[in-house]
Each structure stands twice: as structure tokens, then as C-alpha cells.
Amino acid sequence: MNRAPGQKVSKSLKIVASMLVATCVSPGFDQAGARAQETQTPLDEFPFIVMCKVKSSYLAFHLSRVTKDHTAIYLASDNMVGKITLHGHAEAVGGAGGGNCLGKTLDDLRASGQARFVKSQ
User: What is d(CA 90, CA 38) in angstroms, rounded to the nearest whole number?
Assistant: First the structure.
């Protein structure tokens, strides 16, 4: 079926074209939403920094990793290591050194201002 030059495109052809565009674009939006959800990681559940007073010094323990069982491992200077779970208490790993963070939950650390989160934009 040929159309003469300058003849307007039929209404049904415009509808079909609109449907094709919608079909092609929709998966892109779904994939973008899925990518946004994928960026949420177990690391996002824990504070990035936990500040603790150990003896007469203040240390910033930074989040190093989160294990499969959602245990967060924190590191500070002098090879000090601490760990905490989502619903557990802060513990020193390999000896003393957790200072005033020892035994606190994540809620306790938040309430005391010792937990600092990084929020993505």
C-alpha cells in the first residue's frame, strides 16, 4: 500500500507507533529501577564510622566489610578490630581495645552519636 507524498499518516498507524515506543522504553525504566535497588547492599545497613574513646584517645573505626551472616567488621589505627551484628553488641576482636563502644548495640551507638552513616545522593 503506497501513500501519496504529503498524505497524513493514519490514526491507527500512529497508535501502533506509540505502542512500539512504549514497549521499547518500558524495559529501560524497569532496568533502571532494578539497578537502583541493586545498589542497596549489606554495607548500607551499618554506620560507616563508629567513634570510640579508648583510654585517653578517640578512635574512628571505619567499616571494612560485612560477612554473609551480616557481621560488620570495623578497623582503627594500631590494628584494632571490632565487630557488631545488626542485633548484637559491639565486641573487640583479638583483645581489648573497644573502649566505650564495647557491649553497645547499633541503636546505642546511634543514640550516643558514635555511629556515623554515609548517605548516597
Answer: 28
